[in-house]
Specification:
Blueprint lengths: L8 E7 L6 H9 L7 E7 L6 H11 L4 E5 L11 H6 L7 E4 L5 E2 L4 H11 L3 E5 L3 E4 L2 E5 L7 E3 L1 H7 L14 E3 H4 L4 H4 L5 H9 L3 E4 L5 E4 L6 H7 L1 H21 L5 H18 L6 H23 L1 H4 L4
Parallel strand pairs: 1-2, 1-4, 2-3, 6-11, 7-12
Antiparallel strand pairs: 4-10, 5-12, 6-10, 7-8, 9-11
Length: 315
Amino acid sequence: MKKSSKPLVSVVCTAYNHEKYIRHALNGFVTQETNFPFEVLVHDDASTDGTADIIREYESKFPNIIKPIYQTENQYSKKIKILKTFVYPKVQGKYIAICEGDDFWIDKNKLQKQVDYLENHSDCSFTFHPVHIVVNEKSNKNTRYWDKELDFDAEKIIAVTGGGYGIAVPTVSMCFKTDIALNFPKFREIAPVGDLPLQILLSLNGFAHYFPDIMACYRQGHEGSWTAKRENNKEFDAKNCVNVIKMFTELNRYTEGKYQKVISHRIFAYMQGLRKLGMLQIDPVIYKIYADLEQDIRKYQESLVDNIVAKLADY
């Protein structure tokens, strides 16, 4: 890494009780090979294990790179938006890369590759790539849905983020423009998650570029993770679905209906998710809309079935 007073990239890492994992994340940062300076803003949310001690160890070894933010009280439990409140105000880089404390990078050229593309394509708002999915320290699958470099406009990003493709845009893979990320329109403010509205916001302000190279690992299912919370708490998962529906509804207002068709499909997918959970009744408005939709769908299916005999007339 070239020495300079101001970093080109700010790596953002949030950690809480990640003692088992944080060393992997920090190693992935400090081994990056770049021709530009970068900083790593590590936010520890008052961990009760040894996470902060490990961060201090790396802070001592790499003082020009590791820039910690230590909390004495847990902020997440107070429903405070950690990135917006504590981390983003300290960002110095033109670009931001994200890696949570339980995920990690495995390609030493990851930052260089993504930043080179952003620097050479001013209309690109963010880059991303596939990752290995790690469960119980083993990886049996990845998110490599496409095997060549691709560009995605806003409509495509809305269609694939967190949808039928699963984790199409892994947060740990993203590198994006700082100036866009510092905006918080209402659809982003009310979202129950941070990555989905961020990806959409970025795509509304430029195209996204996909690299097919697997350059990071995303851990799933361990205690305290988002996936574990959803899998182990049906009501938590249902409320998340409802709030994502509200986010998409607000997004449609924000974009003045420009992406109404794809947004409607995304909302319907989350309604189906509620139905599978047996939790449609958690929101009366959503329940009524879905019930009406199912009735219309059944009528349409019946009308198609009614014509089968006619289609078989010459069989």
